[in-house]
Amino acid sequence: MNEDFLLNTESAKVLYHDYAKEMPLYDYHCHLNPKEIAEDHRFTNITDVWLGGDHYKWRAMRAFGIEERLITGDAPDKEKFHAWIKTVPYTMGNPLYHWSHLELNRYFQYDKAVKEENWEELWDHCNEVVKSPAFSAVNLIKESNVKVICTTDDPIDTLEHHVKIASTNNVEAKVLPTFRPDKGLDISKPSFRDYIQKLAKAANIEINCFEDFLKALESRVDYFNERGCRVSDHGFEYLPYNEASKEEVKGIFQKALNGEIVTKMDEDKHKTFTMQFLGELYHKYGWAMQLHIGPIRNNNTRKFELLGPDAGFDSINDFELARPLNKFLDSLESNSSLPRTIIYTLNPIHNEVIASTIGNFQSSEMKGKIQFGSGWWYNDTKDGMIRQMKELANAGLLSQFVGMLTDSRSFLSYTRHEYFRRILCQMLGKWIEDGELPRDYAFIGQMVQDISYNNAMQYFSIDLD
Fold it and tell me: Which of these, 31, 44, 90, 41, lies nearest to 64 by C-alpha position?
């Protein structure tokens, strides 16, 4: 993994080293814990910072036959680390192989290939780095040259840690919340009524009907906006679109509030109406709206009961997307209230659907108002990133793409931006070498810098001062 890793042509090397490499990072979607940033969290050891909460690695370890106590269980951290290092050499072909070596190289200055026989040497080496005064959450952000971080936050969150970060000025990056109201949309879940009580308390509004619910959401959007939020995010197993009158949705909401059975069609109507309401709000506040579409979650019932959600038992869903996506965007566009929107798919079968759909709703308001989001989760592989960018280029304008994000809970995941940039430069460099693009490094290099950072800066309009 030398300085030309993944760069196989002279053009790719020029584009990466002269244009992409030194660009700052704009992480507009991640799952970092703002409390850890506010407190400048220090890590116990390499296992804590490298394996904690990383379900990508957990899935690989399970596939390698590692017992659960060495993954999410109560085994000592050193044993968990050994189990992971035992797995790493066998992840070849999975992005984890590249990511793991990049993380070790960039943050721990370890440039050997990972092998089990070296695991104790690696354990000692990495822990010496972790113990050093410079190794902390805030310093990792600074070392990674990150300028903006948008975390993922529930409407009921107090955002106290974001307030602390903003008031202390200890973090050079701008750290802002993202509004993620999924729990208010999932009205068929047993936890819905309890969540509504929490939302009511956060908004200081009694929620006795659907209109109260909408008022509470609007109140929290305003609260988030005052604390710097400029982005929303929504996760869907599939994108629902089932139109209903407000009166009908009022009745559906009341059924859920009363603990009565809510059908799938009922829930789709609630989600559709509420998302239209929120979309209009986002447009009013000038926010960007993100739609993450396509995971089917918690598929292993026994493991879900043992470990809970987000433990590595989610996979790709299959469903129809073209019609509901176009109808949802059109319902907002018809009222001139379509916000800036980024659409991500977990199922790559929908890549061309999204790439063609966004062209229906672009606007002279700004370049690339509707975006096809970067390869996500099972698609942030080398092949997945290339596939997403090529299909965006085929149907739209790759030059206006807002680029990569981490979508991670780890402070070491910023190397994914480097991985993305190398892949982008290799792809464009090959087009140059094949004679499909001119050898105009200044122009194409500027495009690389735009995709790496500048487009996101313009798109989200977040003041860095």
Answer: 90
Report the alpha-carbon distance of residue 392 to residue 403 in Å, rounded: 12
Q: Is the pTM of this model over 0.90?
A: yes
Residues 438 and 424 both lie in one domain: yes
In angstroms, rounded to a whole number, what is the distance separating the alpha carbons of residues 186 and 170? 37
The answer to whether residue 1 scores a pLDDT higher than 90 is: no
Same domain, 303 and 441: no
Task: Return the structure tokens found at 67.
Answer: 């017992």
The rounded Cα 228 to chain-centroid distance in angstroms is: 19
Helix axes 77-87, 55-63, angle to 10 degrees: 70
User: Rounded to whole angstroms, how far apart are CA atoms 364 and 4?
Assistant: 39
Q: How is 8-49 classified by DSSP, letter by letter?
A: -SHHHHHHIIIIITT--EEE-S----HHHHHTT---SSHHHH
Q: Is residue 238 part of a domain?
A: yes
Q: How confident is the model at residue 294 (pLDDT cuts 50, 70, 90)?
A: very high
Cβ atoms 209, 250 nearer than 8 A: yes
The C-alpha atoms of residue 385 and residue 421 are separated, in whole angstroms, by: 10
**Pair 448, 331 in one domain:** no
